[in-house]
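Re: weekly structure request thread

Next one in the queue (83 aa):
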Amino acid sequence: MEHVTIYGRSSCGFCVRARQLCEVKGIPFTYVDMIEEGMSKADIAEKIGRPVHTVPQILAGEYYIGGSDEFVRYLSAQEARAN
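Done, posted below.
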């Protein structure tokens, strides 16, 4: 699987869940803590090319996945293709 980038906040349960999924499944990932990096949702929107209303915002390589629920569906689809 491609390297995953997760933009989120440490206080966000959905962000923590996305990180844990990567860790459990052995998916290489980078977690960008928006607070530590001084980033706003507008900064993330500029990076991904669409408005951002919630976190996490997740990409696999350059492919935009979406939030936590979309990430779970994406991983399920990837696993189904592998089997």
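Strands lie at 4-8, 29-33, 57-60, 63-66. The radius of gyration is 12 Å.
Next request, please.
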